[in-house]
UniProtKB/TrEMBL annotation:
GO terms for biological process: dTDP biosynthetic process; dTTP biosynthetic process; dUDP biosynthetic process. It comes from Flexivirga oryzae. The gene is tmk. NCBIfam families: DTMP_kinase. Its EC number is 2.7.4.9. Keywords: ATP-binding, Kinase, Nucleotide biosynthesis, Nucleotide-binding, Transferase. InterPro entries: P-loop_NTPase, Thymidylate_kin-like_dom, Thymidylate_kinase. Phosphorylation of dTMP to form dTDP in both de novo and salvage pathways of dTTP synthesis. GO terms for cellular component: cytosol. GO terms for molecular function: ATP binding; dTMP kinase activity. This is Thymidylate kinase. Pfam families: Thymidylate_kin. Belongs to the thymidylate kinase family.
Length: 197
């Protein structure tokens, strides 16, 4: 099973991945936790350029994310799924569609096509969207750590709105959870959905 966790910066993706990971390991499952960008050695280098380097033109940014994704899926995710593992991933192609598409105001459909080409059409079995407002995300983030976190609230509002549009268009693949709920309550909602999947 392939489960992606999506949402704006400060939504609590890392916390929820760790809570679900612990629950699944306790139940005896083989679990792989990974992230984009940065789930491979190549991805770590790309992550540094994308998040901590100088300005990157929007189209170049989208292509770098897609390059990381292609390598990551081929070398980490598909092999894990092939051996029967559950993959929990922090960000996937919906992040590119929302951040580079809506946030950077590129064509979201083009960004999606690029990511699907890069991954040979691999979609998660479940996408958990932790919905957070830009204001709450900013308060949770505290100090800015990267170029995307440093964007203004209008950028993060466009990202959030596009995430919600993606979820509304494909409700069978998405679980949308209010990220302002207590962490354990969110974890229970996610666990219940995973149990049904």
């Amino acid at each position: 099973m392939f489960i992606a966790f999506e949402g704006g910066d400060g939504a609590g993706k890392t916390t929820q991945i760790e809570l679900l990971r612990g629950r699944l390991i306790e139940a005896g499952y083989d679990v792989v936790v990974t992230r984009e960008p940065g789930g491979t050695q190549l991805g770590t280098s790309i992550r540094e350029v994308l998040l901590h380097g100088d300005h990157v033109a929007p189209r170049a940014e989208a292509l770098l994310f897609a390059a990381d994704r292609a390598h990551h899926i081929a070398t980490v995710v598909r092999p894990a799924l092939a051996r029967g593992a559950i993959v929990l991933q922090d960000r996937y192609l919906d992040s590119s569609v929302a951040y580079q598409g809506a946030g950077r105001e590129l064509d979201p459909a083009e960004i999606k096509r690029l990511s699907l080409w890069a991954t040979e059409d691999l979609l998660p079995d479940l996408t958990v969207l932790l919905d957070v407002t830009p204001e709450v995300g900013r308060d949770r983030r505290g100090e800015v750590h990267d170029r995307l976190e440093a964007e203004q609230d209008d950028f993060h509002a466009r990202v959030r709105e596009h995430y919600l549009q993606l979820a509304a268009a494909d409700p069978g693949r998405y679980l949308v959870v209010d990220a302002s709920l207590p962490a354990q309550e969110i974890a229970a909602i996610v666990a219940e959905r995973v149990d049904r999947s």
